[in-house]
Amino acid sequence: MTSSFDSDVVVVGAGPAGLAAALTLGRSMRRTLVLDSGAPRNAPAAHMHNVLGHDGLPPAELRRRGRAELAAYPTVAVRDEAVVSIAPGDGFTVTLAGGDDVTTRRVLLASGVVDELPPIPGLAELWGSTVLHCPYCHGFETRGTRLAVLGAAPHAVFIATLLRRYSDDVVLLTNGEQVEDLLDVPVHGGPVARLDAPAIVTFADGTTLERDVVFAGGPASQHAPFAADLGCALLPGGSVEVDEFGRTSVPGVSAAGDMARRATLSGVMAAVTVATAGGLVAAVVIDQELHAEDTGLRSPLPERAQLSAA
């Protein structure tokens, strides 16, 4: 059966989820092709945290080490080439930007998401340096500094109060919107005109507020259209819905990393370790499903559940 396909599994994306999946598949002797468009979500970040054994390591170094480890597994190949389309049929046909078609029995989507930043001049240029998004990723390093949180949504209000454990100087910037007064967190309601390095906030009336770090964020959208093109169920907010085994609503297609969520865990934070774990689980399940197909044995995995958004 396997000889009629170029690969057992095509992994789209070479971030933590994709590389972890490829490592597991390589150790399972599965013919695996990893395709990477070269636009990781955490590229602007100088360091990553909450990654056991690698706390403070640059994200690019983790990806480099992951690729180097894959070289030990002869059934795994990595290509720096973008995917153009994925078409179902007898398995799947993956068309690459260079024009090649690759046939595969399974597809694992790990192409990530793109952050949609507030449209404030200067913010995008400071993203990942002095404009940060996650107190669990960066809060400890900002302790004792002058902080601001940009936003008026309940999540921004919550984060502003949470950051008080790191600093006595936290300001909530509501950018012209109204919020209720916060305990121990002053509010500046003026519209924000721009941000300048290192983290100087200029308001529409010309006044400024000097900060060391601004926490900001927004929604994220799928980095690539393949999940939607294949008909995978999507959750509100755009995440690909998966079950606890990384399976999407489309048979043969799995998803892992920041792009994928279980409906019951849609609020779980995005993190390197979460993405890595998702890639490993999805890969193990793919291998077991393929083994069941090849041997005719009953898989020990539960049947694919009907996903809520399907």
UniProtKB/TrEMBL annotation:
Pfam families: Pyr_redox_2
InterPro entries listed in its UniProt record: FAD/NAD-bd_sf (IPR036188), FAD/NAD-binding_dom (IPR023753), Ferredoxin-NADP_redctase_2 (IPR050097)
Keyword Flavoprotein attached: yes
Alphabetized UniProt keyword annotations: Flavoprotein, Oxidoreductase
Record has Lyase as a keyword: no
Residue span, FAD/NAD(P)-binding domain: 8-277
Catalysis: reaction(s): [thioredoxin]-dithiol + NADP(+) = [thioredoxin]-disulfide + NADPH + H(+)
EC number: 1.8.1.9
Example of a GO MF term: thioredoxin-disulfide reductase (NADPH) activity
Full protein name: Thioredoxin reductase
